[in-house]
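Severity: low
Component: inverse-folding endpoint
Summary: output formatting inconsistent between runs
Steps to reproduce: submit the following structure tokens with default settings.
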């Protein structure tokens, strides 16, 4: 049996597991938001970074990449890798995946997606909504074992642009982070 995994954050540019095929597309009725705290990759427990999760959003789509994993050994290794990597994401959903905006039938059904829920009893790292400015300030300052939080944001922006995908939340945040950084460089000069 084939397994499919949908990536909408760092999985887009860094899967970290063997796969047979990568397909660009989207899931419906969700949007990508920087509401999840990262205390293990792009931040620390003392100063969490922000990474993306999904929230239900009627009429919206979230673009990303679906990975097909066929071999049983590769599936086991991928799941082992993802359970560690995505450990701060407390839900798994199995959703329909589309490749054409006008399609009424999914290209793939049952794509596995990791989601960080807003339930703070189950997900202690959920940070929730904040203004673009406040999220951007946190992203500028945060860094963790996987690197600066801004690197995560800029790589996500670049990957989405490579797909020719516009994500207003990501681009607004990236622009605000650049504005903050350039303002700091001007005051240092």
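Observed output (run 2 of 3):
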């Amino acid at each position: 049996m084939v397994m499919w995994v949908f990536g909408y954050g760092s999985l887009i540019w860094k899967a970290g597991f063997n796969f047979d095929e990568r397909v660009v597309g989207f899931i419906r009725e969700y949007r990508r938001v920087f509401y999840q705290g990262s205390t293990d990759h792009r931040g620390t427990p003392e100063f969490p970074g922000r990474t993306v999760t999904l929230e239900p959003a009627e009429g919206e789509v979230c673009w990303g990449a679906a990975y097909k994993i066929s071999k049983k050994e590769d599936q086991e290794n991928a799941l082992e890798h993802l359970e560690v990597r995505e450990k701060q994401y407390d839900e798994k959903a199995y959703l329909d995946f589309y490749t054409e905006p006008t399609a009424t039938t999914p290209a793939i059904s049952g794509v596995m997606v990791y989601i960080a829920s807003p339930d703070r009893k189950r997900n202690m790292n959920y940070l929730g909504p904040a203004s673009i400015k406040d999220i951007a300030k946190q992203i500028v300052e945060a860094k963790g074992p996987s690197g600066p939080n801004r690197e995560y944001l800029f790589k996500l922006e670049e990957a989405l642009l490579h797909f020719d995908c516009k994500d207003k939340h990501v681009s607004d945040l990236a622009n605000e982070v650049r504005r903050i950084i350039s303002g700091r460089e001007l005051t240092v000069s």
